[in-house]
Amino acid sequence: MPAPSPTLAELAARFTLGLRAAGEGQLAFLANPRYRQELAGTGASAVVLAEADAADCPVPCLVAASPYAAFARIAALFETRPATTPGVHASAVVAGDADIHPGAHVGPFSSIGARCRIGAGAVIGPGCIIGDDCVVGPGCELLARVTLVTRVRLGARVRVHPGAVIGAEGFGLAMDAGQWLKVPQLGGVQVGDDCEIGANTCIDRGALDDTVLEEDVRLDNLVQVGHNVRIGAHTAMAGCVAVAGSARIGRYCLVGGGAGIAGHLSVCDRVTITAMSLVTASITEPGEYASAMAAQDARRFRRNAARFRQLDALARRMGTPPKD
Amino acid sequence: MPAPSPTLAELAARFTLGLRAAGEGQLAFLANPRYRQELAGTGASAVVLAEADAADCPVPCLVAASPYAAFARIAALFETRPATTPGVHASAVVAGDADIHPGAHVGPFSSIGARCRIGAGAVIGPGCIIGDDCVVGPGCELLARVTLVTRVRLGARVRVHPGAVIGAEGFGLAMDAGQWLKVPQLGGVQVGDDCEIGANTCIDRGALDDTVLEEDVRLDNLVQVGHNVRIGAHTAMAGCVAVAGSARIGRYCLVGGGAGIAGHLSVCDRVTITAMSLVTASITEPGEYASAMAAQDARRFRRNAARFRQLDALARRMGTPPKD
Amino acid sequence: MPAPSPTLAELAARFTLGLRAAGEGQLAFLANPRYRQELAGTGASAVVLAEADAADCPVPCLVAASPYAAFARIAALFETRPATTPGVHASAVVAGDADIHPGAHVGPFSSIGARCRIGAGAVIGPGCIIGDDCVVGPGCELLARVTLVTRVRLGARVRVHPGAVIGAEGFGLAMDAGQWLKVPQLGGVQVGDDCEIGANTCIDRGALDDTVLEEDVRLDNLVQVGHNVRIGAHTAMAGCVAVAGSARIGRYCLVGGGAGIAGHLSVCDRVTITAMSLVTASITEPGEYASAMAAQDARRFRRNAARFRQLDALARRMGTPPKD
Q1: Could you tell me the pLDDT band of residue C1, with boundaries at 50, 70 and 90?
Q2: Fewer CB within 10 Å, N or C, chain C?
Q3: pLDDT at position C239 over 80
Q4: A246 — alpha (psi -120 to 50), left (phi > 0) or beta?
Q5: What is the dihedral of CA A38, A42, A47, A48, to 10 degrees?
């Protein structure tokens, strides 16, 4: 199926963006200020950009309050999604008491456990394993090879990427007479409407209560969410973030790639954590927090790092009192 | 099946914990001192706690030497496990010379390679791929979508969570005339009794000898263990830890989430590494080791980090000799 | 099948290494200088080593320009690979218009989408899910449980380990009226000849253009590569590295385990990033870069880290101007 080719005028009409000029050929967009200097030399026939950049645009432009959001809407017109038809693939293994909506799709090599409910329009891609007592809300999409271990409840329109594991046992261990004793994880996982869960991301189920993602939470790939964590609505976490058990993260937070959040603490709403930083104490004020240094020439870094190891002694020599 | 409902008296009898009083309704537990101040206002009918907290408990309590271990044993009474019946699912693909104990369970869409042995009571969940020459000991549980690539030997009662990959080729590469040359990985992986391996965790097989986990090793989700690593008994690693090739980790070590351990070094017994710290040299004394700083306000952090980049120069100005 | 047993003389002849002496029994190799002191006490019958170490070798040795590369070639003689026969397993689900070379192998529980092409000698292991419009070049090996989501083009001889997810949607999100708006990812992923992609590694597809790995790129396990990243030929990344969207990495770079590279920047050829370091700005000079400190005794570390938080104030007290 060839992609549809709306004209710029059609796009503009559809989006009611202020159309400065119309043209043919390729459409570019300028959403990241880093690329502003590339505007003058663009070969695009038209550019979607912010008001402030319009004057510098040598070709026709579409002015948008948020060029990136405008791009998202335009790109959606060109997106082709694999066709999925309602029904259960012949190879799928479905428990007798699972309730699968006739409008849902269950792909090949998927298995659905006891007492599960799969909602209208939900798509369970190939190779998904859904354990007992799970709910997949209407319009959810589990792309492929997703595992919902047990007691996982997905709201509406949740999108889960391949390899994600939701509802595995948390890392609950008690040391007992020199051996680890497994702490059973009796809770589940609740995922709110419109959440997205990246490839190979893991969200453990709760020990007694549930692990909770409120609505519109967005997790990138390879993220780890421990048991009994709560993540507030609209919070986004980039790849390889790790959140330890029982942490409570607020709404509209942004967590940079590879950052870590310790367990049993709270982060308030609208907090940004920069990439690879480590949060070890509760954060009660919105704002940006950091602890990861940027790479420098390794020889110079090593000299500085060696001094860091003397830093307290150095400061004492200066007569500075040891306080934080 | 409804969960069983033992009374507190029954629990106490079973655990021979010192029963101070009995009651009805919900049972709470106090294992983490962070939550001590919540004790006074608890709505629970009874609390499992340590001797030291008993006096402050406004409701009946169960005193345990280790409240968390007591909780683990109590919670196990309420755990429901999916019923698995012995036998091989009709859809599974099993090599002719694989030896599967009649008391083992092999789920749908699983494949078992040549010369494998699956022990009594072992559960191979749906979607598991077990390559050639693997051994799964008695009572092991591979929950779902686990891959044992080749030459993986699991002891008894090993628990492997979904998405884990054990026995993949290590990252063995030799640069040769401007191209990478693959170093074949001829070893396997030995996993001791009672180990647990988290979701999407990877353990590479050895180059010549085996990669080894001694008994009762506990790895959380998304952990990476390189080829020829040896991890001592009872060591636990939290999510997203990475251990590079040929590192030797002792017994009863605790490694915090996101920490890294460089290759070709030794860490002795009873070492704790804090979250996101990096071990680059052998550790020969038990104790706690750290290198990851805690996040602070980003503007202040950036000013401090800029100074870090001048730190050696700063120290020289003070006349401090450059030594570590 | 027993492994073949070439004699040392045969090995030497085959490799045209300078043979100093021949022997029987086990062959060792000395490639890492860390192990040099073990040479004197070796129980091996022969050792592969570099010219400089030959004089100290108490047993016969094979001198190689690169002992590790020599080992790789020798080990390959002993490697047994699972036999795969051309053809499509009866359980596999293949789209009617997929073009599968008669010399390719497609294993059980694999699914291949519309318009895919699978080349000569390619091996698609068990449980692989290949979405629409993918190309798997000749001689590729997808070991097991690999997902190619859509529009992924693998060159020749690409090796992909279990659990890897290539071509998932990038983390493209635009904030729009308080909700996240999904940015469609219309591009694909191009992977050059002879690349290797580790277990549970994720490579997202591009937003408009493709995400690109040039030839002979080697990614270890649990690596995250964001959308529209470009990685130059012969670059190797160790486990748990994360590369954010639109970063451009040069050729012959080495990235240590757990390192992070921010988005929208460039790293030139022949750059080494040490383990767990964070690159936040473009690098234009070859060399080694670092930002991750090594663990020390935790009490001492905490005292130093507390001083770090005063570092700018400390430097000001010394009258140092605040510049980087």
Answers
A1: very low
A2: N
A3: yes
A4: left
A5: -20
| Contacting residues of B for C2, CB less than 8 Å apart | none
Phi and psi for B240 in degrees, rounded to 5?
A: 70, 15
Sign of CA dihedral C243, A266, A244, B241: positive
Three-state helix/strand/coil letters over chain C: CCCCCCCHHHHHHHHCCEECCCCCCCEEECCCHHHHHHCCCCCCCEEEECHHHHHHCCCCEEECCCHHHHHHHHHHHHCCCCCCCCEECCCCEECCCCEECCCCEECCCCEECCCCEECCCCEECCCCEECCCCEECCCCEECCCCEECCCEEECCCCEECCCCEEEECCCCEEEECCEEEECCCCCCEEECCCCEECCCCEEECCCCCCEEECCCCEECCCCEECCCCEECCCCEECCCCEECCCCEECCCCEECCCCEECCCCEECCCEEECCCCEECCCECCCEEEECCCCCEEHHHHHHHHHHHCCHHHHHHHCCCCCCC
Domains (range + CATH), chain B: 8-78 (3.40.1390.10), 87-289 (2.160.10.10), 300-324 (no CATH)
The amino acid present at C194, given as its one-letter code, is D
- Interval C267-314: pLDDT, tens: 999 999 999 999 999 999 999 999 999 999 999 999 999 999 999 998
Instruction: Mutation target for B interface from A148, A229, A254, A277: give the one with most B CBs within 10 A.
Output: A277
Selected residue of B276, B278, B280, B310 to mutate for chain A interface (largest A Cβ count, 10 A): B276
User: How many angstroms separate the first and last alpha carbons of chain A?
Assistant: 63
Pairing, β C179-182 against β C173-176:
antiparallel
Chain C interface includes A294 (CB < 8 A): yes
Q: What would the two tokens of residue A207 be?
A: 């020990």
| pTM score | 0.91
Positions in chain B short of pLDDT 70: 1-25, 322-324
Residues with Cβ within 8 Å of residue C11, at least 6 apart in sequence: C17, C27, C62, C74, C77
Contact criterion met (CB below 8 Å) for C122 and C138: yes
Check B101, B105, B161, B227 and give the catalytic one: B227
Q: How far is A277 from chain C (nearest CA, A)?
A: 10
Cβ–Cβ under 8 Å, residues B266 and C271: no
Taking residues C207-236, what's their average pLDDT?
A: 96
Higher pLDDT pick, B1 / C225? C225
Residue-wise pLDDT for C141-180, tens only, equals 999 999 999 999 999 999 999 999 999 998 889 998 899 9
ipTM of the complex: 0.90
Question: How many C-beta neighbours within 10 Å does residue B25 have?
Answer: 10
Amino acid code (one letter) for A1? M
* Cα distance between residue C30 and residue C33, in whole Å: 7
Instruction: Give CA A175 to chain center in angstroms.
Output: 34
**Tens of pLDDT, residues B28-42:** 778 777 777 878 877
Q: Cα(A211)–Cα(A189) distance, rounded to whole angstroms?
A: 5
For chain C, the average pLDDT equals: 89
Main-chain phi, psi angles of A13, to 5 degrees: -60, -45
* Alpha helices (H) along B55-166: 67-78
**Rounded-to-integer distance, Cα C181 and Cα C169, Å:** 13
Secondary structure class of B33 (helix, strand, coil):
helix
Nearest to A282 by CA among A246, A255, A247: A247
Q: Which residues of A touch B198 (CB under 8 A)?
A: 168, 171, 202
Q: pLDDT tens across B155-199, in order? A: 999 999 999 999 999 888 999 889 999 988 989 999 999 999 999
CA B202 vs CA A293, B254, C81, C84: distances in Å: 28, 18, 21, 24
Q: Does B115 touch chain C (CB under 8 A)?
A: no
